């Protein structure tokens, strides 16, 4: 069982701790505090970002998970860039997920209960798939993105880095979404999105 530290101390970090424990593969030894968050966890705070490498090198932890959500995308990405080549980033896949044997899931990814990742799909590093996300086939989800619960992503879709796809969104097949896009809850994406911004509605349209 791997000793896991979670960077963050809010509700997302707490959820990831529960998921990691449910896999049976990780022992959560504590959280790494972040000043942008209110401490909500019942787990011990074992240090700050500057302590992570010392914790790893002294065998107190084996790997980390980044429990920072879409409200702080830039911080989430900075933490990934800081640690990706220095300490293992845990891949946490809940046992109720289906991941096809041809699919690839990158370092630092978290897959909540009931997710499906279909044939030949690629989930790049540090992506979070929340509960019951469906990734059909031949999709690419690029680094540091967040897919909210109950999203349905059809085949041969590409989603860029640092995207937040809102709860219940549907993206039809063969569509591409550029980086730094927010899709509002319940939207339906039927066209390529080539300009960063916020999109809502059916069909999804840019509002800012």
From TrEMBL:
Belongs to the transferase hexapeptide repeat family. CDD domains: LbH_AT_putative (cd03360). The active site is at residue 137. Residues 3-82 form the PglD N-terminal domain. The record marks 138 as: Increases basicity of active site His. InterPro entries: AcTrfase_PglD-like, GMPPB_C, PglD_N, Trans_hexapeptide_repeat, Trimer_LpxA-like_sf. Residues 94-208 form the Mannose-1-phosphate guanyltransferase C-terminal domain. Gene3D superfamilies: 3.40.50.20, Hexapeptide repeat proteins (2.160.10.10). Acetyl-CoA binds at residue 167. GO terms for molecular function: acyltransferase activity. Its EC number is 2.3.1.203. It comes from the Bacteria. The gene is pglD. Keywords: Acyltransferase, Transferase. The lineage of its organism: Bacteria, Pseudomonadati, Bacteroidota, Bacteroidia, Bacteroidales. This is UDP-N-acetylbacillosamine N-acetyltransferase. Pfam families: GMPPB_C, PglD_N.
């Amino acid at each position: 069982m791997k000793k896991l530290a979670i960077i963050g101390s809010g509700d997302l970090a707490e959820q990831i701790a529960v998921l990691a424990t449910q896999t049976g593969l990780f022992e959560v030894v504590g959280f790494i505090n972040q000043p942008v968050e209110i401490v909500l966890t019942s787990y011990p705070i074992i240090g700050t970002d500057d302590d992570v490498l010392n914790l790893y090198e002294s065998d107190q932890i084996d790997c980390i998970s980044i429990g920072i959500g879409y409200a702080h995308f830039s911080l989430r990405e900075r933490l990934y860039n800081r640690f990706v080549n220095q300490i293992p980033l845990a891949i946490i896949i809940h046992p109720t997920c289906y991941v096809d044997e041809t699919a690839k899931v990158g370092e630092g990814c978290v897959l909540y209960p009931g997710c499906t990742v279909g044939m030949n799909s690629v989930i790049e590093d540090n992506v979070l798939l929340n509960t019951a996300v469906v990734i059909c086939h031949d999709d690419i989800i690029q680094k540091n993105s967040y897919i909210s619960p109950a999203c349905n992503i059809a085949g041969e879709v590409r989603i860029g880095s640092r995207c937040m796809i809102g709860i219940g969104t549907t993206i039809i097949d063969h569509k591409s979404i550029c980086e730094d896009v927010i899709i509002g809850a319940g939207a339906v994406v039927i066209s390529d999105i080539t300009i960063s911004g916020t999109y809502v509605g059916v069909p999804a349209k840019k509002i800012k």
